[in-house]
Specification:
Helices cover 27% and strands 36% of the residues. It is built from 4 helices and 13 strands.
């Protein structure tokens, strides 16, 4: 991909919607919204679909405007590049609108394991073993989870294959401050205790390196009981 292509593309197609609340420990009933209890595999399918679309369109644009043809004037090349770029922008924007990526928020379930309660400090150590498979980085697409306190993305090699996973990065435990009675109730119903991370998906072009950016953006994290839909703790991440 040469400098001509790198300088021709620039796009930021999806904004972010953030609902601000202070992090707090509580238990209350809430009304679940659509796509608020996705299983990891369901979110993986959504991610791969959007990532594949972005990759195909970015590859197509690179082939069209990667270099000037032998019998093409500079003016003709520049016009062809501008036209191709406009088609690219139109397709990406149409995809975002069709899939409602500018408004959708995806709530994904990460199983919580209640490790140990300290009655003196009223602190519960909690972990999550859940891994959500995600697209990995390739030269033409940078996949990332923007920096935040709890959710991360990591590459690994599994059985000789490269994989990328979203996980809860607690280093090593999440510290949940909670009254003993509430802790006992949660432990008795541990099979239904989850972290729910809400994400938005952003598709972007950097405009400098020519690589597209596929961002999986955490919006909010909550510790809750899926059976009763009671939230014990939550915090905005963006």
């Amino acid at each position: 991909m040469n400098a001509s292509f790198k300088n021709l593309i620039g796009l930021a197609v999806v904004g972010c919607m953030v609902v601000s609340v202070s992090g707090q420990s509580r238990a209350q009933g809430t009304t679940a919204v659509p796509e608020d209890n996705l299983l990891p595999a369901e979110f993986t399918t959504i991610l791969k679909e959007s990532w594949s679309f972005l990759k195909d369109e970015t590859d197509s644009l690179a082939k069209i405007v990667g270099s000037k043809l032998e019998f093409e004037t500079v003016a003709e090349f520049e016009k062809r590049a501008v036209d191709a770029r406009q088609r690219y922008l139109t397709k990406v924007n149409r995809y975002v609108k069709d899939k409602k990526l500018d408004t959708r928020v995806f709530g994904v379930l990460f199983k919580a394991t209640l490790v140990e309660y300290n009655a003196d400090t009223r602190m519960y150590s909690v972990i999550s073993p859940t891994l959500v498979e995600a697209p990995y980085n390739i030269p033409q697409i940078v996949t990332e989870v923007p920096r935040n306190p709890y959710v991360a993305l990591a590459d690994s090699i599994t059985k000789g294959y490269r994989t990328s996973s979203i996980y809860m990065d607690f280093s090593p435990h999440f510290r949940w401050q909670v009254h003993r009675d509430t802790a006992k109730v949660a432990k008795a119903d541990e099979g239904h205790i989850y972290f729910r991370a809400r994400f938005k998906i952003e598709l972007q072009q950097t405009g400098t390196s020519g690589a597209a950016r596929f961002a999986i953006v955490p919006q909010r994290l909550a510790l809750f009981n899926q059976r009763t839909n009671s939230i014990y703790w939550e915090q905005p991440l963006r």
